[in-house]
Amino acid sequence: MAAAAFPLDRYRDAELTLEDLVAAAARLLRRLDVRPGDGRIAQAPDARGIRYYQTVGVLDRPLRYDGRRAIYGFRHLLQLLAVKRLQQEGHPLHLIQQSLAGRPTAALEQALGAMLAGLGQGPQRQQTQGHAPQAEAPEAEVAPAPLIAARLAPGVTITIDPALVSDPDALIARATAILTRSDKEP
Amino acid sequence: MFESIDPIAPTVAIDTATAPRDLGGLLGLVAGREAAFPLRELRVRADLAGNCCRTIVEQVFDNPYIEGLEAVHIFPLPPDGAVTELELRAGDVIVRGECREREAAEQAFDEARRQGRRAALLTAERADVHTVRVTNIPPGTSVRVRLVIVERLEEADGAFLWRFPTVIAPRYLPGSEEIGHAGAGVLPDTDRVPDASRLQPPLRLAGGVTLDLEAEIAGPLASLESSLHAVRATFGDTVRVAPSGRATLNRDFVLRVVPAASDTTMVRGYTDGAFTLAIVNPPAGVEAARVPRDVVLVVDISGSMEGAKLDAAKQAVRAVLHGLDRSDRFRLIAFESSVHAHTPGLVDFSQRSLEKADRWVAALRSMGGTEMAPALTEAFSGDTPPGRLRTVVFITDGQAWNEPELTALVVRERRGALLFTVGIDTAVNESLLSRLARVGGGTCELVQPQGDIEEAIVRLEARIGSPVATALQPRTLERARPEPQPVFSGRPVPVLLRGAAESIIFDARDPAGRPIELTMGECRRVAFPLGALWARERVAWLEDRLVIESERKSELRAEIVAVALEHKIASRFTAFVAVEERVSHTGERVTVVQPVELPQMWSESFLGLPDMAGPPMASRVAAAPPSSGRLGRVMHALFAPDSGDVRGPSFEDAEESSFQADSIAESSAPEPLEAAYEDYAAEPPVLPQRGSSDPRREIETMLATTQDANGSFGGRVDRTAAALVALLCLGHTRRKGTRRRVVEKAARWLSQHRTEALAQLALALLDRVEAGGELPRRDEAELLLGAGAQGEALNRGLQMAR
What is the DSSP code (8-state) at residue B288? Predict the structure, then answer.
């Protein structure tokens, strides 16, 4: 379970401004196979979309206000991901509204975690770790993209799963920088 | 400690090999299958007797979830109503609620929640907006929250109006800064509406909650009309009414009750021994002073007005305009997020200015937010010279949340002007519009978008302008609302007094400023909690003071608490709480705020993202064209300006739509019903619905809106004389009927053309009818009409009108 929920974990105690919430949702929606451009419905939510989701009650009121800024949290992120994913699956918003009413945070987390696993992230990660047998990999259409291997320094090579990392080059650059810096600090 | 329970859709233990790729499946969302929200049903039982009404409201909540439930329901109640009782009923357990100061009630509720006891809390957020919270509803069980509401009915033009709101419409939220989100609603608190987060329930995207409503009305009644298709059953003098089909919580339910015998006593009195309700009738035979008026029409063209409501608002504007007189000046202001004015200032009423205004109104389109404040400021701005009366007519659905701000604005800026409000909506903001009219010194008229706007404006017209009496004040006893009040024609003034007396004398001033005395002779004993009504009105007055004198906040608040606790009524600072003795649920608990329907005839598109909402729920209903009936077309052809050489349309089936002027009074009278109430479902007798089209009214409307500014019809004696005779046949004179003003203006114009025989004849007929003589006979009408250029067509039209 914990492994399946892995990408969500870091948001568990998050305090997000509206911009943070939208950005986090956009990142995670890609992993949930909801991509911008798949028709209007699948567009990443913007401030106006958030306001609308609040109007229909599929998104809770903010956790609190920091001065004049609304602060959102883990539950909001899960709600937003669930709405968008369900819309992508073709469910009309009025059924989503009914389905999400009274849904505890833990239930949302569990379902979304399972989704992330089901979409291949979990198994892929296990695969790279050598635990999941090849034969039991998920269906063909979610076959993982080839992993990227990058040699950062002599004797140090990392592999990057492009399905999980939006910008592999930037990650490689950052990792290289860390190595370089640690070289300079004895 | 509690065990963790699976959520509704038990999430499958995740096996990475078979992990689902469908979140809907994981959440148990099955395509096409509807799930339930907590509120299952609203039961309303109302008892109407004269000016008083007692209503029992029962909200039935289910817990369809597998966790314990805290249900939150934000809902409207009649703004004049006082909640006097709350009961929590679960199975055969009945817990009676206690009225306490709001903080104390909330604390008791929070404690019950922690302890796992079932509990209910009722708080009043505004005069109309209330919240019921029920906590610790165990899974798979139901509870009922039963409220008792007492209220005083509005009385206008001989009818009692009972309006029961069922839904809070999405209202506009003014403010530039969000400052928090303390309440359970969906809007943030803002700098201009600091309590906004408690007010707006979520919007429900499909389905609705059933309204099970029944009203019992003490008779005998002359007529009864309902805003919904309804059925009635009669038991002796008592009449019961219920909607005939399935109704949901998506519009106000309005009953218009006309008692059989109108009480023309100067002042009617009712007492329960400790409190008195006096109804002061407008003094008979007193005409309001004819002061030249500066009329400013303010019309709401915001997004929420889109569709039928805007059409109705335009109709209202035109109706008011055409009712103006030569000595009047006027100005039109339209508002949404910004203010639009048709002229920089007031203009004289003339044929030219009237036509220009008509064109300007026709071109208005709905858009933007509902920023009322700048529009009202603009309406009150500018000077009105002595000897003229500034009158502002505010036409809107009232759907904005800044009621306190607007109330303060009207008090501060009106400077002697009178503010009349006209509310147009299926779920109108009565709280705002009646309050603005109250502090604005005018009256409030509420109409359904497809109701008879014309008729409402005609009723209003008799009042736009001067009151028939001012400074009404009782000589003895403590009044709930201490300020002296104006009295308008057709609108009896209810006065709530602490104490009882054999006879009460009211002082007032007539239009000329002379003192008059109105005496309440007899006082009927009633078993109705008038004290609660007194307290409700006192609280409303104190709330007005709070807005106006914010520096006395704590003092006024303490006064509100004292009055509300003494009479055990809910207010903003007092609440009802009921807590069950035993513990009924420990364990996980979810909180669900009940989403509510979009009111009927609202267009969803203004909410911003229609494509995200699935298929539109509210079908937009266009207002019927004003002259849809055959007769309407005929009259239109006859009286429309520049109708040219209209040939009379064919009348083969004229008999079918014949109606008679002398049957007016009976046309809306109820049919006696023999069948027992229980049988009504078999063959329900349908009540007349407000606004159902009536060819007679169409003709009247046509005449009223085609009359020129000078009172003539196209400046022609023959047409004007024919119009006058048609109005006479329809029961209107200068003294009676709703079209008094049209008749008066036409007669005045004709009297300037007395040299023409047709004018003389028409005026002679008018004098005869006004003196109590017979209506124009067929030969007389023919004589009159036969002389005109379109004699034949007019004649036929008139025959039908008779």
Answer: P
